[in-house]
Amino acid sequence: MLSYWEKKHLLNADLLIIGAGFVGLSTAIHFKRIHPKKEILVLERGGLPTGASTRNAGFACFGSLTEILDDLTNMSEAEVLDLVQRRFKGLNSIRKEFGDVGLNYLDSGGFELLNSESLDALESMDKVNEMLKPFFEENVFSLEEDLYPYGFSKDIKAVVRNKFEGELDPGKYMLNLWKKANEVGVRILTGINVQEIDGESGLAQAIDPVGRYLVFSGEQLAICTNAFSKTLVPSLGLKPGRGLILLSKPLKNQIPWEGSFHVGKGYVYFRKIDNRFLIGGGRNIAFEEEESEEFLVNAKIKDYLNTLTESTLLPETPIEWEMEWTGIMGFGQTKKPIIQKVSKRTAVAVRLGGMGVAVGWQVGKEMSDLMAQM
Ligand SMILES: Cc1cc2nc3c(=O)[nH]c(=O)nc-3n(C[C@H](O)[C@H](O)[C@H](O)COP(=O)(O)OP(=O)(O)OC[C@H]3O[C@@H](n4cnc5c(N)ncnc54)[C@H](O)[C@@H]3O)c2cc1C
Question: Among candidates 6, 8, 369, 5, which has minimal Cα distance to 208?
Fold first, then answer.
């Protein structure tokens, strides 16, 4: 049951945004900057954002050597270069907007571990450096001379450094997005689960935490629900992809390296945070099972990450896991985000895959420009 006041003031906006992850909040902030007088209302189903933005590993990355080589098997050089540029520019734009302190950004480099199966990637390192040179103006990838200080097992035959990558803290990034949204006057309602939209009339039917049925209306609707867009816009053909992260208890000894590390075409990643060991990924050993919107832990993947840690990455260090969590990404036929109008008043900004930390802010800007032109 609604009151007259609720109905009159609280359910309407000029722009209604569904989803308060990186993309939804960036869309809101950019749109409000262009149209300070317009009312922006963001609807989020969770009490906290409940997708990928606050549940990733905090990698400020744009592609490891083997990931780029893998992309080159099904994309043109121009497309791969475009993807890398987009991610790198995206990372620079958030560093400029929020500052390195605002993101807890560490300019610590990216590293990829090669074993005997992936070692032949080194033969293509010069070629990939040449491909990226027009944009970076110097070599991106170089071979680490001395592996001993890292303490990896003998399975690791080479480590490739990417000097342009780093690490950040997704929680701090979100905190500063909230602050910015608040400063410009964006309203965010949490616990609002949108069940259905009418893109032509700008209506969004939702259920709130006490089970009330609410109908929100906007002059325009922006759908920023990434992996969870299947119900609202089925035609996009998006698929969810779950990612698992394990975090250890604080370690007795200092981990002797820093940076964002990758193994196996970027599918496994690890770093240290507060002298804890964080490892994530492994979706590639159970692709179909991980095509899920449920925040569950797949025991097979947990076991795989645990074994890799003990046998190869930290063989000398006893590890006890303290936390585990999953986040859900949105994938499709290509790695390019979809930013497009889907009906008279409605547009979507989705399919961020495993790169929304890097490009989410920029995608939101492009979405806001699109909404402003509609
Ligand atoms: C484990 C993991 C590791 C990652 N690693 C990296 C990385 O190294 N580099 C990188 O750049 N990116 C990485 N990513 C990807 C990145 O986190 C995502 O691409 C990005 O967060 C997507 O942002 P988004 O705003 O599009 O989606 P989300 O963050 O998923 O936000 C969508 C929001 O919509 C809300 N929502 C959904 N449906 C509804 C509804 N019906 N009603 C109301 N609200 C709704 C959800 O609750 C959610 O908060 C990783 C992701 C994961 C999970």
Answer: 6
